[in-house]
Design a protein that fits this description.
The chain has 15 helices and 18 strands. By secondary structure, it is an alpha+beta fold.
Length: 627
């Protein structure tokens, strides 16, 4: 407290005299007053001699004409002064808010006439929130005014590095509470939207392994951090925990994170393959990365750091504009959406850079755009990414469908070639070998009786039967006459007669004839599944069933064997036979479901009707099926 006595004494001597020398109007507080940005009511002076020179040594007071004063980067202490008069009949409690988190040192004084009624000696950016005059995210000071009295308010401000701007407001106390609640809600909603976008981008990056979504997530995260830092929320809640994000120059860290991530996001989103843009992106990212490293290693802020950050921001905007123009020139469909997304935010960034350097005037509208234009940008880019992801998925689906169609056509051609070859072989066996066996049998009958003639005749009869069976297996001649149900029943009966297994066939529902090619394909599938059960399943019984439903045909092949066991030292999901079955099923638009275990194997083939079906005409079944 003793250290502050010289300063308080100087303030008592200086500011009253300064007020008398100045020509500032007083802000009149009447009934219904809520807030004012003090435009036209602010005066400014430096304290180079005024704190020790008394009233006679005060420099002339300069009236500030800007809506948001900008004092540049001279690093001197600046006095900001205004007068307020209470014209209401009651005591009015007022709050002065400095909506700028980057001030290194702030002092606050209030005089009633020439009497100091309030003094807050020193408030720094690191002062805990609960130890401030008003527990608020940015510097704020409360004072009371009596009816009919005029008060002089002075603030002494210093920023050690960078630009000092002063977005200042005067609030009525109850309005300030409502204003703070509204601001917290809107800023929280904006930051929540940005963090949600970052989470979604990270999730899509993890799922798709695409760097585009990762850069989007980093960009949204950087924008959220920038918003929370500029509005003082990080300093309010994390001042004692994370020094990196609560320094007065923490905006540099978040802005560089945004620049590096958005540069590469834009390059990937706009899909520009030219090497020039990649080299430009590497250049901007390299400088931004150096500034990020400066922050991460904890070096103190300097004017050079701020100037470099502003230069990188300008280069970043120029690069983004160049990327956009190149995309528009190439007629990229993403260019229009990108322009709609980044336009408001980039315009605000350019406005801030020019205003910070004094080329344009500061404005409260600029700060409002800075708070909420990133949310618009990230939301529009999120829509663009969603549309892009949907288009990519449609392209993948179309590619899969095209590949499936090509495989189906290949399977169809292969089946047609196999069926043609089977028919040719069956015809050749019947015409050539069958005729040869018949000739041999007739020749044997014309020979004189011999002891071995009976045995030779039996061998020729067996060869003829085997030939007919082979020809039947290659191309069932009864197919056109008896259809799928009759031929399959006949095949099951013949297999049962030739083996010791119990093989049964059942049919349910009203029989409907399919297209001949589809019936033949279903028969081949059934034959393959039956062959697998007989050769590999070690089954004691097999059950085959055809079920004609109103909406489709079902084929069931079930055995009580050992199940389909995976082969050792192989990752193949199925053998050649099952792969052939799956290919045939896909060819006719059917679905195959296989359930296997130690109890056996169940195959269920479901064939939808395609409109070419017709009721079966009553015909006599094959001989084997009638037995």
């Amino acid at each position: 407290m003793l250290k502050q006595l010289p300063i308080l004494t100087a303030c008592l001597l200086t500011l009253p005299g300064l007020a008398q020398r100045g020509d500032l109007p007083a802000l009149v507080v009447r009934e219904g007053f809520t807030h004012s940005n003090l435009w036209g009511f602010l005066g400014h002076s430096t304290d180079s001699l005024s704190l020790t020179g008394g009233a006679s040594g005060n420099p002339s007071l300069q009236r500030l004409g800007e809506e948001v004063p900008n004092f540049g980067e001279d690093h001197r202490a600046h006095w900001v002064y205004f007068r307020v008069s209470n014209a209401s009949p009651t005591v009015r409690n007022l709050v002065v808010e400095l909506d700028f988190v980057g001030i290194d040192s702030t002092r606050f004084y209030v005089w009633e006439n020439d009497r100091l009624v309030k003094a807050v000696p020193t408030l720094t950016a690191r002062t805990p929130t609960l130890e401030r005059d008003v527990a608020h995210r940015v510097p704020a000071f409360r004072f009371s005014t009596r009816p009919g009295q005029t008060y002089r308010v002075g603030l002494r401000l210093r920023k050690n590095a960078g630009y000092l701007v002063l977005p200042i407001k005067l609030h009525e106390a109850r309005h300030f509470e409502a204003y703070t609640t509204r601001d917290n809600l809107t800023h929280g909603l904006a930051a929540g939207c940005l963090l949600l976008a970052a989470f979604l981008g990270a999730a899509f990056c993890f799922l798709t392994r695409r760097a585009l979504y990762g850069f989007y997530a980093l960009y949204a995260l950087g924008l959220a951090g920038f918003l929370l830092e500029e509005q003082g929320y990080l300093n309010e809640f994390l001042a004692s925990r994370m020094a990196l994000v609560t320094r007065t120059d923490a905006w540099v860290f978040f802005s560089m994170l945004c620049i590096v991530s958005h540069t590469w996001f834009a390059l990937l989103f706009l899909n520009l393959p030219q090497k020039f843009w990649r080299w430009a992106a590497w250049g901007v990212s390299g400088v931004g990365g150096l500034l990020l490293g400066w922050q991460l290693f904890g070096f103190p802020p300097t004017d050079g750091l701020y100037r470099a950050a502003l230069a990188v921001n300008a280069g970043y905007v120029l690069l983004a504009v160049g990327l956009l123009l190149a995309a528009l020139r190439s007629q990229r469909p993403e260019a229009g959406l990108y322009l709609a997304a980044v336009g408001p935010f980039f315009g605000t960034v350019v406005w801030i850079c020019l205003a910070t350097t004094g080329l344009l005037a500061e404005s409260w509208l600029m700060y409002e755009f800075l708070n909420y234009s990133p949310v618009w940008e990230v939301a529009v880019l999120c829509v663009g990414l969603a549309l892009r992801f949907s288009a990519e998925q449609r392209q993948k689906l179309q590619a899969l469908l095209e590949a499936s169609r090509v495989r189906a056509e290949m399977a169809q051609r292969l089946d047609e070639a196999q069926e043609a070859e089977r028919q040719r072989l069956a015809q050749d066996l019947h015409d050539d070998l069958g005729q040869t066996l018949a000739t041999a049998r007739h020749a044997l009958e014309r020979l004189p009786a011999a002891p071995a003639s009976g045995e030779l005749r039996q061998l020729l009869e067996k060869a003829s039967r085997d030939l007919r069976q082979i020809s039947h297996n290659l191309m069932p001649v009864e197919f056109e006459r008896f259809g799928l149900a009759g031929v399959l029943a006949d095949t099951v009966q013949k297999l049962s007669d030739r083996t010791d297994l119990e093989i049964r066939f059942a049919r349910a529902g009203e029989v409907r004839r399919l297209d001949p090619r589809r019936e033949l394909t279903v028969f081949r599938i059934a034959s393959e599944l039956l062959g697998n059960a007989l050769r590999h399943a070690e089954a004691r019984g097999v059950f085959v069933q055809l079920t004609y439903r109103p909406d489709g045909l079902s084929l069931t092949v079930e055995d009580d064997g050992t199940g389909i066991l995976p082969k050792k030292n192989t990752a193949a999901p199925a053998g050649i036979g099952l792969r052939s079955v799956l290919s045939r099923a896909q060819y006719i638009g059917a679905s195959l479901t296989t359930d296997t275990g130690p109890w056996g194997t169940l195959h269920l083939l479901e064939i939808p009707y395609d409109g070419s079906e017709r009721p079966e005409k009553r015909r006599q079944a094959p001989v084997a099926a009638r037995r």
